Amino acid sequence: MSSPEEMDDTSEPPSPPKNTYNDPDGGRQRFLLELEFVQCLANPTYIHYLAQNRYFEDEAFIGYLKYLQYWQRPEYIKFIMYPHCLYFLELLQNPNFRTAMAHPANKELAHRQQFYYWKNYRNNRLKHILPRPLPEPVAPQPPASLPPAPSAPAAPSPAPSPMQYSNMLPKNETRNMVSAGIDRRKRKYVLLSSS
User: Fold this and answer.
1) What is the pLDDT of residues 77-88, one digit of tens each?
2) What number of CA atoms fall less than 13 Å from residue 116's CA on the CB side?
């Protein structure tokens, strides 16, 4: 009879378990399902639903949320269409946030903040990306009814204020009609009949 040491030397390596799962599509379906679930986390109403139905009390579900953090890596982040889902995924790692999202007021607050972020994102981003140059000063153009300026250069005088031109412009005829007591509804009729 041989000793146990001799049996170990001649024995074959252990074979893999016979019931291992081979994914027929190479993990594509799992990838798409996890991607869809992660992107659903961009919706505060869905997070509220999960909290209301006590998913956040299940340790296996909390472990699944921790597992899904691999979506923040650069090789996976390129597939994300709703980047807020990654922010909410990070917030869901905190137990205080998970319990707070069970209350409708917190759901509404998160939804409102998300809306305001989307509403102002482009303008806020453009402020930092594309700085606007200072506007160049533009000399006011004199109205066409004034005579041309003298050709002889005299002492430089300051440019006239646009407010100085307001009394030189002809007043709008319809304003005069209103002040004269003509009803606004009859204004069109009066203008047509007078021509």
Assistant:
1) 899 998 889 999
2) 5
Question: pLDDT (tens digit, 9 = 90+) per residue, 145-181?
Answer: 655 665 655 555 555 555 555 555 555 555 555 555 5
Q: Is the pTM of this model over 0.90?
A: no
Rounded Cα distance, 64 and 57, in Å = 12
Q: What are the b/e assignments for 52-66, b being 16+ CB within 10 Å?
A: eeebbeeeeebeebe
C-alpha angle 99/103/105, rounded to 5°?
Answer: 130
